[in-house]
Amino acid sequence: MVGGLGKPFYVNVPNRGAVTNMADDAFLEMLCDVDMEGPRPRPVGDKPTGLRGWQRRVLDAHELTAEAMMPNSSLPGIWLVPSAEKRMNTQPLLQRSVT
């Protein structure tokens, strides 16, 4: 950024219309031009149907997980991923997130 190299980088950024058939606020890993103003995703156009469906599923999981961890959420929290409790003790994480 400081050196003004003009090199593109892959960055996780809000879509902002770069992928025309996905929501503008969807965070996607995209090729961006980066300068002192921050990253700007390069235009991509429409994402193919199969890839768009897969990406939407990933974004849905992120959104549901974040929502489930919020206090007073109507979602079942860590039970969205039933195998997680077997791999780690989730109780301390849940206690910290709701207090």
What report would you give on this structure?
The relative contact order is 0.12. A three-stranded antiparallel sheet has the order 1-2-3, with no helix packed on it. It has a single domain (8-98), classed as L-2-Hydroxyisocaproate Dehydrogenase, Chain A, domain 2 (Alpha-Beta Complex). The N and C termini lie far apart (39 Å). It has helices at 49-68, 84-87, 91-98, and strands at residues 8-14, 27-35, 38-41. Helix content is 32%, strand content 20%. Strand 2 (27-35) and strand 3 form a beta hairpin. The longest helix is centred in the middle third of the chain and has 20 residues, at 49-68. It is an alpha+beta fold.
**How do the strands of the widest beta sheet line up side by side?**
1-2-3
Count, helices:
3
Number of DSSP-assigned strands: 3
Strand content: 15-25%
Radius of gyration: 18 Å
CATH topology, by name, is L-2-Hydroxyisocaproate Dehydrogenase, Chain A, domain 2
Secondary-structure element order, as H and E? EEEHHH
Q: Give the averaged pLDDT, no decimals.
A: 79
Shape: flat
Break the fold down into its secondary structure elements and pairings.
Blueprint: E1 8-14, E2 27-35, E3 38-41, H1 49-68, H2 84-87, H3 91-98
Antiparallel strand pairs: 1-2, 2-3
Concise overview:
The protein is α+β, with helices and mostly antiparallel strands and 99 residues long. 5% of the residues are buried.
